[in-house]
Amino acid sequence: MNKTLSVSAINNGTVIDHIQCGNALRILHFLGLIKNEYQITLGMNLPSKRLGRKDLIKIEGVELTPNQANEVMIFAPDATINIVKDFNVTQKIKTHLPEQVAEVFLCPNLVCVSQDKNIDSIFYIDEQGKHVKLTCHYCERAFDKDSLKVKM
Ligand code: CTP
Ligand code: ZN
Question: Residue 136: which domain range?
Fold first, then answer.
């Protein structure tokens, strides 16, 4: 059989697979993994039977929590999250889109009260078919997930 992995297997950690192209960097950024010293392998625009093309993230030595896994769904509703131990997939985390998300995003509305550094943003999440919409708790405006900046 002529089957090779285009990104090598990991020993222990988390694999976030089937990420819609273009979302891998936002997810890494959101999980706060870029600034830390984790061993990360990143695949972008890899061929996928299910999605045509996909992004893929492998994080050695980190097990995402169920909460983090659910928050990843905001960026990539079709993603699958696998926990690897001793080179074997030991768990495929069952995820669902959270109802709300706090602190992660900045409201794009420049006159929104949440622009104040002392106020944590809160967005309510709605799934409309393939689109994920987030409504700001403070100004009540709705935004597409792709138009929101992740807080640094
Ligand atoms: N993987 C890995 N290192 C391992 C084991 C698996 O990086 N030691 C990765 C695989 O490359 C794959 C993901 O983890 O991207 C899921 O592995 P597996 O369940 O074996 O793949 P599939 O059968 O393709 O699962 P699914 O279609 O549910 O994603
Ligand atoms: Zn707002």
Answer: 100-150
